[in-house]
Amino acid sequence: MLSSTPSRNRKSDQDHEIWEHLKQAIADCSGFKQWQSGQTTDHDSSLLDQQVRCYLRETLETLAY
Fold first, then answer.
1. Are the beta carbons of 64 and 41 closer than 8 angstroms?
2. Is the pTM of this model over 0.90?
3. Are 52 and 26 in contact, with CB atoms under 8 Å apart?
4. Which range marks the domain in which residue 29 is found?
5. CA distance 18 to 25
6. Are 36 and 55 in contact, with CB atoms under 8 Å apart?
7. Mind listing the pLDDT tens digit for each residue in 5-39?
8. 46 against 64, higher pLDDT
9. Could you tell me if 48 and 23 are in contact, meaning their C-beta atoms sit under 8 angstroms apart?
10. Three-state secondary structure of the chain
11. How would you classify residue 37: left for phi > 0, otherwise alpha for psi between -120 and 50, otherwise beta?
12. Is 36 within 8 Å of 43 (Cβ atoms)?
């Protein structure tokens, strides 16, 4: 029986790499920068992941209406 662990790890690595590129592209866009300037939280770069997730969630909620 073959183990699928190496293939899962590869997939996970690919997913992580895609997310990092997507996150950076979103962070560089003017819409995100405008949204970010309206936020009351610190703009610590370590929080970029959380900020992008929040931005995407709010954007999708707005589009759903």
1. no
2. no
3. yes
4. 5-64
5. 11
6. yes
7. 677 788 899 999 999 999 999 999 999 999 999 98
8. 64
9. yes
10. CCCCHHHHHHHHHHHHHHHHHHHHHHHHCHHHHHHHHCCCCCCCHHHHHHHHHHHHHHHHHHHHC
11. alpha
12. yes
The neighbour count for residue 55, using CB atoms within 10 Å, is 18
Of the pLDDT bands very low, low, confident and very high (cuts 50, 70, 90), residue 43 is low
Query: Quick one: pLDDT at residue 2?
Result: 56
Q: How many domains does the chain have?
A: 1
Tokens 């979103």 sit at which residue? 26
Tokens standing for residue 10: 């590869």
